[in-house]
Amino acid sequence: MIAIKPDFCDIDTSILEYNLEDYASSKARWCSGCGGHTILHNVQKLCKEEQLAPEKTVFVSGIGCSSRFPHYMKTYGFHGLHGRAFPVASGIKFRRPDLHVFVITGDGDCCSIGAGHWVHAIRYNMNMVALLFDNSVYGLTKKQTSPTSPLGTVTNTHPRGSVLPPINPIQATLGLPNVSFVAQSCDWKPAHLYATLQKAYHHPGLSFVRIVQRCPVFMRDVYEPILKDPEAITLLDHEDGILLEEKSKKSFRHIIDHDPSDLIKAREIAEIVKETTPIGLFYQNRTANKYDEYGAHNLGISTENRIEAIENLMDRFAV
Amino acid sequence: MIAIKPDFCDIDTSILEYNLEDYASSKARWCSGCGGHTILHNVQKLCKEEQLAPEKTVFVSGIGCSSRFPHYMKTYGFHGLHGRAFPVASGIKFRRPDLHVFVITGDGDCCSIGAGHWVHAIRYNMNMVALLFDNSVYGLTKKQTSPTSPLGTVTNTHPRGSVLPPINPIQATLGLPNVSFVAQSCDWKPAHLYATLQKAYHHPGLSFVRIVQRCPVFMRDVYEPILKDPEAITLLDHEDGILLEEKSKKSFRHIIDHDPSDLIKAREIAEIVKETTPIGLFYQNRTANKYDEYGAHNLGISTENRIEAIENLMDRFAV
Amino acid sequence: MQMDNSNLETEYSAISTLVKRKEINEGIVEIVSDSGEGAQKCGQSLGAISAKMGNGVWTVEIIPAEIQPPARSKAGASGIRVRMGSGKITNMGDYADLVIALNEQVLFGRIDQHAFKPGTQILIENKWANNDSEEIKSQYSEAINHFKELGYKVTEIPMEEECLKIVRDARKGKNMWVLGLLCNIYDRDLQIASDQIKYVFRKKDDKIIQSNLDLLLAGYAWAEENIQLHFRIPSVKSKDDFVVMNGNEAISLGIMAAGIEVCSMYPITPATSATHAMAEIMESAGGIIHQAEDEIAAIGFAIGASYAGKTAVTITSGPGIALKTEFIGLAAMSEIPLVIVDVQRGGPSTGLPTKVEQGDLLSVLYGAAGDAPKVILAISSIEECFHFMILARKLAETFRIPVFVLSDANLATGVQPFKRPKTNPDWFAPGVDQHPLPDDYKPYDWDPITGISERSIPGQKNGMYTLTGLAHDEFSNVAYDPAINQRASENRSKKLAAIQETLKKPKINGDDKGDLLLVGWGSTRGAIEEAVERARDKGASVSSLHLHFLSPLEPRLKEIFKNFKKVMTVEINYSDNPGTALITEDNRRYAQLAWYLRAQTLVDIDCYSNVYGQPLGPGRILKMLENKLGIKLVEEI
Amino acid sequence: MQMDNSNLETEYSAISTLVKRKEINEGIVEIVSDSGEGAQKCGQSLGAISAKMGNGVWTVEIIPAEIQPPARSKAGASGIRVRMGSGKITNMGDYADLVIALNEQVLFGRIDQHAFKPGTQILIENKWANNDSEEIKSQYSEAINHFKELGYKVTEIPMEEECLKIVRDARKGKNMWVLGLLCNIYDRDLQIASDQIKYVFRKKDDKIIQSNLDLLLAGYAWAEENIQLHFRIPSVKSKDDFVVMNGNEAISLGIMAAGIEVCSMYPITPATSATHAMAEIMESAGGIIHQAEDEIAAIGFAIGASYAGKTAVTITSGPGIALKTEFIGLAAMSEIPLVIVDVQRGGPSTGLPTKVEQGDLLSVLYGAAGDAPKVILAISSIEECFHFMILARKLAETFRIPVFVLSDANLATGVQPFKRPKTNPDWFAPGVDQHPLPDDYKPYDWDPITGISERSIPGQKNGMYTLTGLAHDEFSNVAYDPAINQRASENRSKKLAAIQETLKKPKINGDDKGDLLLVGWGSTRGAIEEAVERARDKGASVSSLHLHFLSPLEPRLKEIFKNFKKVMTVEINYSDNPGTALITEDNRRYAQLAWYLRAQTLVDIDCYSNVYGQPLGPGRILKMLENKLGIKLVEEI
Ligand SMILES: Cc1ncc(C[n+]2csc(CCOP(=O)(O)OP(=O)(O)O)c2C)c(N)n1
Ligand SMILES: Cc1ncc(C[n+]2csc(CCOP(=O)(O)OP(=O)(O)O)c2C)c(N)n1
Ligand code: SF4
Ligand code: SF4
Ligand SMILES: [Mg+2]
Ligand SMILES: [Mg+2]
Predict the structure, then answer these.
(1) Contact C521/C344 with Cβ under 8 angstroms?
(2) Cα separation of A263 and A226, whole Å?
């Protein structure tokens, strides 16, 4: 996301040196071993590396374990309603191109109650980073089935196992209009996660990043196989994709070369989730329409022009 | 949709001869030239051909011009809330495998306010036919932009032209889990429309049919080019697809052979909408999980068993 | 465009002096037709012309339920009512004095709605009399007889025939011929009329404008010769400038005048047309309309915009309010300034989408779970549609609170002239504050008396906090200590008391003591006050009070009520009729304001309300007063 | 499994006769720990054992806000309160008599919540005294001193040490050792206790069961020798069978007992656990739980299921109710039977998700736009959680109306024994009617008196109609004639009056006249009635009335109120405190039931309410009565 200085309000532009502490708020109240902790750390690192002014940065979330995220950042935060992070974030960004807006959402928050907003947020393609913390379960409410729970997952609402195949958030997103950035990573590959966050941050448009997240309390069985089996993850590699150092690449047994400009191919790869978990950049298009540019196009008109416009309209009704 | 006789209620199964009139209710109050009229006619024809008992047939809709549809059928109808046809229809079908359930929805109803339910209805894959009347506009409320309005469409909410590319309902649906039947037709090709309805009706699972619909009052400019230019429509042809008589096939300049079992290919074809309007069967999978089968699996247990189950549970809390 | 109408002018003056005219101080005209015949354009022009002449005017559209209803059908009646008077006109009135009908069928719907009275003049297109279809012919003649039986004065007029002398397609143009007819009947200034036509067709080419002018003159001339109805409505031309518009247009202007930059909406009747009025112009006024994917997203987006900058507005109607409920709770809880416009329609559920009801008061007051204090304003005139938007924005900003503005379908489409507001920069929201805040800044540093606290806007140094819908303390930290929730709730509630402190005791229309006080809110004001005045002229001891603040309530109401023997609300919403079987004092369900005032004041407030989906006419209210007070108030017709 | 515990038994009897015991008629115990230490399992077992022994019991869980809060933290307090008595126990009581603490930090939260009083016995794990970390050591000793200053009687106990004699990991097992300790202190029957342990661990293997039995005995023995606290709580073992469960479990059983086959929900605290209780068993009872994509879909699905067959239920809490509002309007408008369970939590907005509030009454009553009549029932005990589901289903079906059942977080997690219901087939919904209807069938053939009409279900010949949320007539045809909407609204409203007809004048707890009447609804019943009884014992002239029907209201309330000098509601929701600056009679915002009763009865009803997010204890209410009545009622502590 590139920060543009709006012309309608005066801002102190003196450059400061921000450290990690400048982004860390109260201790994260997630369970020990929760994937949230590593994600939080890497996001804070991103803020520091990019030297984002804390007062210019807003984390918007819904409701869920993951959505507690803003409370753990020392920036502006909006911990809103379940499933509604996208509309709020869009409203924030619409007239504030100068703000760095991040959306934090969970698999229930985004893919279940928030599904309609998800569809349209992709279409609006506003210049924000959206992080889907996908632990394949409803964590905060204590283990109910989520739309991304694998078929047969035993939960409190499906003690005999869930009965429907999971949504593939990557595939679903790739089917939407104006989609401009779709990537996947996981919380236990910090180097890859960080590189993904960076790529997402620099993308002009809505960067949708699904992060496979561990929930040791409720979902050990789901991620442990992936965690243990080095075959289980496939790295999407390309010069225009997520760039890793050679040594960290080494840790991957399966590597597919994938050009992120190829949407058709991206959808093909997104199908392989049944056998393996692909991580990397599926698709990027820098030129898609950005709704926030429309939102900002008439910022800061003068009081005179404003009065004139109103009076002109008033004339139409004059008698 | 195959009707199964439920074992929990007695039904008069005497077979009757139903004529078209048996399905026609009050005169349709749509504008003259509205695509709704031809769709209505072909649906009534389908009911007659399949001899659906009117009392066993339910049309469920949301709100919109299109959603007035149930009022024009002499069957059961549920003209519910804007965007909410899918949840209601799912609830109806869940424990009534014997009913023929049709969902009638509009592009605003399904793709805007109803988008979240649309995503999940595809995933539930219940044995129903869903008809999306896509006129690319909000008709009933008098010409506002819809998510399927082409970029730049001039409407009452976007007098300078809409600013976002439209949703491609076919592509979006093909990206969803458990998708089992996706077809497209248009109101002015009755033979193709009828054949599509028939195919959809006989599909076991949720048949999603997008019907490109004319709204002469508000959207002439959108469909007239397609209507006039014989190049503008491409027929998807395959022995497993929508079967047309040779003579009606003749009327198509562009014909693509497409095997509806090929999902990857289907998505590729769904991209060509920019150049032409493909009609036909994009994808079909008869074996996807059906949530209504789960819903019906324990229908009609005896009072004794019911009491026993409750008493067993009660025992757990006994002191 | 330029055209020479010097000769026109002489022509006008020539004609418009010949006939003798009866002076009346008001006239109610209806023009009823199939939709698409331009009846509304004709009536709006008549209204504008009359307003320009200095008459009081109220026009209201007659809208069918379908986009394109069947022609010549009862349900398809499309048209307009224009009430013109020498004084100020504040409502649609009761019965039409004169009706122009382009076919006979469309009148049946109006008759059901008690729009006419014996003696009403009906000028009807006569072409149906010799239509090719026998069915139509007989329908027509039967109807004409039926109308006469009902006591209407029917005059058959060769509108089609006359128009065809000027234009090839009479459908396009008949409305302007009718306008000419009416201009003659009511002695409208032809110069003003022709200017109006030029304005209405300003985007069309000269030929079209000219033919419409010709039609105007032709209709005028025809009436002069063939019609015995010639009236004059005295008017006082004020030196003030006036504007004429409907309520939704006034709301959209008000939004811009308030300096609101984001209007986030999802289309719904009857609210949408407000955004249509805006859409074209708002961008040049520095704002944008966002059409969201649904009502939930619409308010979420507005809340985001408010949180990050200037107070935004979302606009909807009943079904949309239901969907916004959860977010309204969040706005109240986290004290986000927000303006919510509710253009009420008939409920419950989808109800009567194009018809009026005041059915949302209690649902906006109590909609959200827990205690979610909000301000509720009720608009009672077209002019207020404009000014209340400015007030609402200020209240929302100052008190960090969601502010509801209640309008309804009657105001949305009702047209009335009002003094042209002079745009005042003080109305505009100040620029987004981006100055650093003190190190010890607290996002909810509640003032112990008023509960007010200063908000921080992203971009302000030291202002960082995480807004949350969870119970929270002064720092917006999640509350674990039970005392915090109680304290925070008290502070949010104090803001309402503080706002009430700023309000004056409301003024009473009529004496401030007497037999009966009528209490109203919203669009019924004009009709209630007119009825009260008419009743008082006949010696009834009745007054009325109209409330604009519904949360907080205006002060000292109990004190006011105590001075009347009886107090009752007049509302357009549902209440049980005490006469009905099984309805007792124990279970009677009162109209919404009555209910609310009973709880707050413990005064035994009765109510007169119904859900016919129509604006209340003064006559209906007068009839009710007649029964209540046992005085003859309505002259039989 | 089988195991020989003959020797155990003798052992028990051996021990359990040695000490002298003080007879008390009730005891309140709290077990507080970090989450995951099994405090709740320990307390639930103690409750079950006591219930089996014939004691009255109420247990309520102490739940932290996070899934896994930091260890040894104030906010992390996890545990349970158990109130045992010789008579019936209907609420959590006031101060704990005895507290088992597994660390000292978790007690601070409880202290903030006024859970203890001077003299409260605190038995605390002493291992922290010699922890490796200096910080912890000093935290511990400081806390101990602080507790003593507060007047608590602190006893340090080597729990860890003792448990390690039996198990390798004391974390797993300490809770059962504590159970043994408590069994000794309160003279619980060891045979019943060991059976309870066997039941609790029935899915575990014998080794685990045995070690837990050993821990039980060890704790018991240790207390025998080392603790001077030995009580006896007399009990009368009734011959009736009892069940012990929490309110959500009772609701889930009630749903099945009502023969409801579809429970459509979206997870939300504190409602979800009801569906957890059901999920496992419901399918074998012929029903299914549908977890929808959101609350809107959940109620839409339930409405579809009801429309097509048997009345369905949807269950949620405040934020979910907000989202269901629009569909509730449709259900009322189109007269679809439906049961909506609202397990209320702290609001507004996300509020206090795990805490109790009675904050949804007005929002369910008035939530939807227009007039949408619905039935509202309020549950006041665990037993009613079961029986009201059956009643709700019958009302919904008979009157074709949405029925709300209001529970709350206090009932959801509160555990109480009640007479075991004998499942009665008459409770079940009849099979789905598929018989043909007469040719002249009307879907809304409203009975002129009661407004009731017979619904048709898809599959019924001649029953075809199109249900709609638009205003409609008897045939469900869209209404164009204005009279129809009025008539239909009247008929929908009549149903409430008809239901009230079937209700009796409610019973009063205490004399039916006097100085003060307390009026309550929902989970506060036990506390209110206990307070009233205690006050009356001290000579106060106070009675109480508890309402179960809130829409329609129970009959003849005004008549009842008139017999008391003062009437006030006691509720757990927000109301302005008259003392506060700017709060006047003109603007005071009352508690929700008070508000509603004032409007209906015009009686000047006061209220006592707060939003601390905690169940009301009788002591709090007694203190309030003391102030109101000016009589000494609470003995100082
Ligand atoms: C309107 C509403 N419905 C339901 C809830 C209850 N709720 C809170 S979080 C949550 C789902 C959490 O799952 P997810 O989004 O995957 O987040 P996670 O906790 O797994 O990080 C639900 C159902 C709510 N707070 N609001
Ligand atoms: C909750 C709610 N929001 C908005 C509306 C207003 N409304 C009615 S139909 C409609 C959209 C119609 O568009 P579409 O679904 O494409 O149907 P069409 O009329 O084009 O057939 C809207 C916004 C409503 N009835 N309910
Ligand atoms: S429950 Fe799961 S997701 Fe939630 S904090 Fe704990 S580990 Fe993380
Ligand atoms: S407005 Fe368009 S969609 Fe609606 S009825 Fe008329 S033609 Fe059909
Ligand atoms: Mg999750
Ligand atoms: Mg449409």
Answers:
(1) no
(2) 26
Question: Residue D243 and residue B88: Cβ atoms within 8 Å?
Answer: no
CA pair distance C2, C236, nearest whole angstrom: 31
Dihedral class, residue C212 (left if φ above 0, else alpha if ψ from -120 to 50, else beta): alpha
What is the pLDDT at residue D2? 40
Q: Does B317 touch chain D (CB under 8 A)?
A: yes
Give the span between the Cα atoms of B123 and A166, in whole angstroms. Answer: 8
Query: How far is residue A140's CA from residue A162's CA, in Å, rounded to a whole number?
Result: 19
Q: What is the pLDDT of residues D289-323, one digit of tens each?
A: 999 999 999 999 999 999 999 999 999 999 999 99
How far C74 CA sits from the closest chain D CA (Å)? 9
Is B88's C-beta closer than 6 angstroms to any atom of ligand 4? no
**Where do the DSSP E strands lie in C40-158?**
56-62, 78-85, 96-101, 116-125, 153-157
Burial category of B256 from C-beta neighbours within 10 Å (exposed 0-12, middle 13-18, buried 19 and up): middle
What would the DSSP string read from start to end of C460-505? -TT---EEESB-B-TT-PBP-SHHHHHHHHHHHHHHHHHHHHTPPP
pLDDT confidence band for D15 (50 / 70 / 90): low
* Residue C74 confidence (pLDDT) above 60: yes
Whose CA is closest to B153, among B105, B215, B111? B215
**Residue C69 phi/psi, 5° resolution?**
-65, 160
| Of B82, B115, B157, Cβ closest to residue C291 | B157
Q: Whose CA is nearest to atom 6 of ligand 1?
A: D268
Report the pLDDT value the prediction gives residue C15, as an integer from 0 to 100.
52
CA dihedral of residues A193, A195, A196, A202 (deg, nearest 10): 150
The protein residue whose alpha carbon is closest to atom 5 in ligand 4 is B30
Assess B15–D contact: CB distance below 8 Å, yes or no. no
Which parts of D2-158 fold into alpha helices (H)? 6-15, 39-52, 106-112, 134-149
- Residue indicated by tokens 């939709």: C35
Neighbours of ion ligand 6 (CB under 5 A): B 106-107, 135
Q: pTM value?
A: 0.95
CA of D303 to the centre of ligand 1 (A): 23
Testing ligand 2's pocket by substitution, the residue of B65, B103, B138, B219 carrying the most ligand atoms inside 8 A of its CB is B138
Under the banding of pLDDT at 50, 70 and 90, the label for residue C279 is confident
Q: Is the pLDDT of residue D7 over 60?
A: no
By alpha-carbon position, which residue is closest to atom 13 of ligand 2? B138
Q: Name which residue sits closest to atom 8 of ligand 3, judged by CA.
A: A34
- Tell me the torsion sign for CA atoms C608, C613, C614, C620: negative
From the CA of B103, how far away is ligand 1's center (Å)? 29
Chain CA centroid to CA C376, Å: 17
**What is the number of the ligand closest to the CA of A38?**
3
Give the model's pLDDT for residue C7: 44
Q: Which residues of C touch A122 (CB under 8 A)?
A: none
Ligand nearest to the Cα of A218, by number: 3
Q: Does B141 touch chain C (CB under 8 A)?
A: yes
From D231, D296, D218, D305, select the one nearest D263 (Cα to Cα): D305
What residues line ligand 3, using a CB cutoff of 6 Å?
Answer: A 30-31, 34, 36, 65, 135, 139, 215-218; D 67-68
Q: Are D49 and D84 in contact (CB under 8 A)?
A: no
| pLDDT for residue D335 is more than 60 | yes
Q: Given a cut of 90, is residue C3 above it in pLDDT?
A: no
Please tell me if the CB atom of residue A34 comes closer than 6 angstroms to any atom of ligand 1. no
Phi/psi of residue A189, each to 5°?
Answer: -120, 75
Q: What confidence tens digit (pLDDT) does each residue in C187-240 have?
A: 999 999 999 999 889 889 999 999 999 999 999 999 999 999 999 999 988 888
The tens digit of pLDDT for each residue in C155-177 reads 999 999 999 999 999 888 999 99
- Token representation of residue C604: 């035994």
